[in-house]
Amino acid sequence: MDLVWADYANLVLNGLAEGLLIALPALAVTLVFGVARFPNAATGDLVSVGGFGAFGAYKVSGGSFLMAAIGGLAAGAAAGLASWQLVFKPVARHGSVTLLLTSIGLGFLIRALLGLGFGNEHNMFELPMMRAWTMGAIAINRMDGIVALLALATMIGVFALLHATPAGRVLRAMADNVDLARVAGINTARASAWMWSLVGVVCGIAGVLVGLKTQVSPEVGAELLLAAFAAAVVGGLGNPLGAVAGAVVLGVAQELSTPFVGFTYKIALSYAVMLLVLLWRPQGLFNRVQGVR
Asked: Which of 107, 122, 115 minimizes the C-alpha distance to 229?
């Protein structure tokens, strides 16, 4: 099949939209890693909680998308804070391996509870028919564009919080050196609770956007986890901007590979890129090597 420039342009735009969506859970992964020093394997399941919160609020409110957004955000924030207070905080002193294994178990538990409570069928929002935005030979799916813009707005808000608020400066201080932050008088327990609430909000919004773009089910978040984790590794674990950039790079690369490897196998490209990055720059593309002092 011969492709013209417009086909490649459409693939790049689709990749940007996909990458910006993946960037939200990737950002959540890297926020936890930066502060708590472990990769949270339950991130995808927090996305699913946000999706069900949005879908439940949507149904209860009679089809209000505003209430769906509020419900998803609230459910994600509550799940993130509860996971810290009830699960991770009691075992935090046992180290990163214990926290990682705990997060794996928490993910399975959340998935099981969602399946028991809501069933395993796929739930979909009733969206109006929308015509694509067209610019000559280039066509952009309107819902993809809306989802991408909302994801971008969310990330801008997160970065503003991290760099322009006292709470954000506290989190960055903890990411640099949690012991030094504690000695400096920072209430690290309260800051950790705030960080987990922020992670929950990001995952909740991701759940809303995934539900609008595809569907809501107990497995939908877990299906995003590997791509999000790959993006965080490529960008550099603990580097929020790197996670976003890694997600965009992988999203575009996946879409551009579709004509050559097919839709089914394009996801493998993420892991191939992650493997190459780990072999070439284990610290990620946007992290610097830290010397031992």
From this structure: 107
Q: Which residues contact 164 (CB under 8 A, 6 or more apart)?
A: none
Tell me if residue 123 falls in helix, strand or coil. strand
Token pair 């609430």 in the structure block, residue = 197
Helices (H), 236-291: 240-261, 268-280
Question: 5-124+138-280: what fold?
Answer: ABC transporter involved in vitamin B12 uptake, BtuC (1.10.3470)
Q: What are the residue ranges spanned by the domains of the chain? A: 5-124+138-280
Distance of CA 178 to the CA centre of its chain: 24
The SS3 call for residue 286 is coil
CB burial string 204-227: b at 16+ within 10 A, e below: bbbbbbbbbbbebbbebbbebbeb
Instruction: Give the whole-angstrom CA distance, residue 171 versus residue 150.
Output: 24
SS3 258: helix
Looking only at Cα atoms, what is the longest distance across the chain?
63
Q: Is the dihedral of CA 273, 13, 203, 170 positive or negative?
A: positive
Give the pTM: 0.90
Distance CA 243, CA 260 (A): 26
Backbone CA torsion sign across 148, 153, 158, 160 = positive
Residue type, 209: L
Q: For residue 209, what are its two tokens?
A: 């956007």
Q: Which helix (H) or strand (E) holds 289?
A: none
Write out pLDDT tens, residues 166-222: 989 999 888 888 888 888 888 888 899 999 999 999 999 999 999 999 899 999 998
